[in-house]
Amino acid sequence: MITLDLFAGPGGWSHALNVLGVRDVGLEWDEWACKTRAAAGQLTIRTDVAMYPVWPFLERTTGLIASPPCQAWSMAGKRLGLVDQPLVHQAVADLAAGRDTRAKLLASCQDERSLLAAEPMRYLHALNTVGQPEWVAMEEVPDVLPLWRQYGVILRRWGFSVWTGILNAADYGVPQTRKRAILLASRVRTAEPPAPTHAQLAEPDSLFGPGRARWVSMAEALGWGATDRPVPTVCAGGGPGGGPEPFPSGSRKTLSDARDRGTWAPRADGIVLQPRREGAGWAVRHGVRDSRPADTPAPTFTAEAHRWSWSLRSNNQANATVRSIEEPAGTLFFGHRANECTWIAEPVGTPPENETEAAPEPIRITAREAGILQTFPADYPWQGNKGQQFSQIGNAVPPLLAGHLLAPHLRVPLNPDDFTLAA
């Protein structure tokens, strides 16, 4: 028996399943997402989900997962999926009745990707003829919720308990306020959303149950102190053809100045590190131990290091989301904005009299940092150039959110500490 993962991407659902002790088979078309999955040890069939037959999975599938491509529906794109929505609903209704009208409907779509959101129904209809799957979990951008509700009506008719709604990933410990439309369905249990573990403000325990922790901030997830600055790095794969990614404008001088002050130090392998406060709580959360003796003081920062606080700006548009590192990130989305998501510095307090200093230059977010903010491990083996890596990360399901959604279906407990983000 297998868990079938349609549009498997780089492995958000798969990593969660692996943590929970289950393997899946992922169907994915993108070359670099498949290479990432292979490097992560995940079973993958590189194929077009719309063309692959269902018969190999009959009488073998216990769970079905689907996260169709969201570009046609996302607010980051042209949103032609909304224009095509009646056609997608028609395709779902036809497929549920055993009629394949996809070719005719596709010819009328404004965005050929729109109809991919109907593909899970083709698999579900075929699997339902043999009484499978036992459970279903699907995820998409919020505008797809009406389509998930249509799926829900059909699945209930086939004997499933179904829940559909919008969940905020930050409510489940993800350092990102990523909202997604979710469908959960089961033949053997009442489908319902997992209980949130976090809230915007911490909540104490009460007579009605345990309280919720405060949303996880970017600083906490990345292991930064309040005044730490991101470190620009030269990484392979800066453009479409690969190759080194240049530093943002002016950051070479910023980096050299910081080295001169001793606030950043290069390692032998070329990675630039900076001192940061790693208290016991941070070490426990991230699965590492503080190697300093107990009586050793924490590293100190220069006055300049305290003068700037850092925020993440999602893109260079006027209405871009800007969040302090003391908050969760906004929804991470990439593509044509892959190189525009930047750390920016803002002044804190008043500098000493007669001393002026320009703010540090913006520094691009790295794939490693973006992956951590999606709750992938820091050493997750992203493949491809920088643009390809960012595209995979932005389209992925946060593994920690996926774990919360999947654990009840798998009848296994979820331990959030198993999703610690290695430093």
From TrEMBL:
Annotated GO MF terms: DNA (cytosine-5-)-methyltransferase activity; DNA binding
Stretches assigned to coiled coil: none
Keyword Transferase found: yes
Active site: 70
One protein family per Pfam: DNA_methylase
Region of interest called Disordered, as start-end residue ranges on this chain: 237-260
Keywords: Methyltransferase, Restriction system, S-adenosyl-L-methionine, Transferase
UniProt EC number: 2.1.1.37
A single GO BP: negative regulation of gene expression via chromosomal CpG island methylation
SUPFAM superfamilies (alphabetical): S-adenosyl-L-methionine-dependent methyltransferases
Keyword Methyltransferase (UniProt): yes
UniProt-listed InterPro entries: C5-Methyltransferase, C5_MeTfrase, SAM-dependent_MTases_sf
Family statement drawn from the similarity comment of this UniProt entry: Belongs to the class I-like SAM-binding methyltransferase superfamily. C5-methyltransferase family.
Name of the protein described by the UniProt record: DNA (cytosine-5-)-methyltransferase
Record organism: Streptomyces dysideae
